[in-house]
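Sequence only, no structure available. Ideas?
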Amino acid sequence: MTLTTHAAEDAPATTSGRRAARSSLHLRKVLVPIGLGVLLLVGVGLSASVAYHNRLGVTNVDGISYMGIAREYAHGWFGDAVNAYWSPMVSWLMAPIIAVGAGPQTAFAVVNTLAVAVVLGIGGWLVWSQNHRTVPAVLFMVTAIPALMSAVSVQTPDLLVVAWMFGFLWSLRWADQALHGSRRSRIASGIVLGAVAAIGYFVKLFLLPVALGSVVLWLLLRVWSARRRREPVRHWWPVPVAAVVAFAVVIAPWVGALTVKYGEVTLGSSLSVNVGSKFDDAGRSTDWPWLPVPPNEHATTANEDFTPSVFEKGVQDNPDPDAVPPVSRPQTEPTVTKSSSLVARGTYYVEQRLLAFPYYLQKISTFAPFAAPIALLFAAALVIGVVRFRRYAFTCIVAASTLVYFIGYGMITSSSSGGGNARYYWPLFYLTAMIGALMLPAVWRLVRRRGVIRTVVACVAIAVVPVASYTQNWFGSPAPFYPSVNRTDPLQVTGPVDVPPLVALADQMKSSGALPAGSSIIGTNSRSLASIAFLTGTRAFGRSGQGYTYHSEAMLKVYADEGIRYFVQFDPASAPARDYSMAGKVVGTFGADIACTGDSSSDAAQPCRIQVIRLDG
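Reply:
I predicted one. Tokens follow.
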């Protein structure tokens, strides 16, 4: 007689259940990376399509300098390419693409598409690897994709800045995890952290203080957390030391090249130029030359190097002050200048930053309406103790880096520019989206214990984040709960490639022979002229707001002295005809819908008449 117990009866079922669970877990480990990989390919593919459809245009005057420098690297003109103002990484990446025969605009599109892959790949993996939950990673990637598609065509290194931020967060997380490992792992992680920080320095000089501030804040958080748990911290020193050494070794050749070219040791000039102007209420109108010239024979515009020792070599004195529009000269004597006391300049700086702060917040909300709510909710969770550094270390590291970046640009933005360009603050979109995704499991656990209504409300609130990104960045419609957007037209993902009016105008000028390649030119709209010069292979002199004209004998003499042979006059199509007999001969008249009456980035396009005058001087 055999007795069978309940345990014996349940044993096969239990074993079978464990096998099924292991099989399900194994299948999940295979399917989840594949699913995220497919989403990565979709995001990169859509962004590449947008970049392809917009590759012909010149979207930014800064981009002309980056592409011009890349072209100099590609042709081996290294002495001209080394530049203290424009950070070199984006030009370095474009140079080999240009060298194999691609156009500069195409090269920029390729580099930005690679940056998209880095943001989605590293960002999605960082979110998934923190809790091995699929939904948070998908939430982050779906939110990021429309914004990346909207940004991929902009010819500046700002998308590369976003990509670097995620690489930096990865290296910072590795360093954080290595603090309690072996000395070898701490040194290795420190070397990687320093090397990544050096790459950030090459991407944009502003990222150097961002990296430094983020590392210092991370170490302070770690020390504070360790002291609360009575843990030793002395053995952590190899990480920051190795990071500093690696950073110095990586940047040394570049700093050496800058030192040789400019005759003094420098990390770069962009911070000193841009931050220095924030202490002086006279503004650039009195600081900068009336007629700056391209810094070398291969440069398209004088903007290729704003380093004072180079930029100020242009003509300093205006030969005909009466020809300069009143808006380009201060109406009253400045109260604070570079010669004022440190206290006066400091007080002025603080006052201006306080005036600029509302514009700064408004500018951020135009492309990331969810950034402020996520940041405030996370800060509140920290204060009340819902979020603790010990459990949410990486999320706190992301938040610390976001705070450093936010404060950093807040210190240099200005009210006169309405908070500056929105692209400077792009990382805040992706970083706050990552914070929200990282906190999603905790939020979900909390609301599920609080009833159906709170769960529904939480789902709606979470869904707002990707919906806002999609509607605002893809369709150009107002994001949820925010009344304005940067763009009003949908992204062009498919269909024919349109030729921008300015590109078509440049093609007409080239084919007609009105502007021979290699010529030196000047005109009434420096921004449009810079794009025309880049597209026609000519060299544009001057800068915006200086009142260049063809009917001043004093100005014409300066043009002749500088070798400027062509003057380009921009007028509305309906404007009366002009008499150019004093200056020279009209060699080409063209029409295009471009910005022509003003000389700023906010000018709207309108039907314009563009005339090229060959100067007789």
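Confidence is low (pLDDT under 50) at residues 1-5, 282-286, 326-332.
Hope that gets you unstuck.
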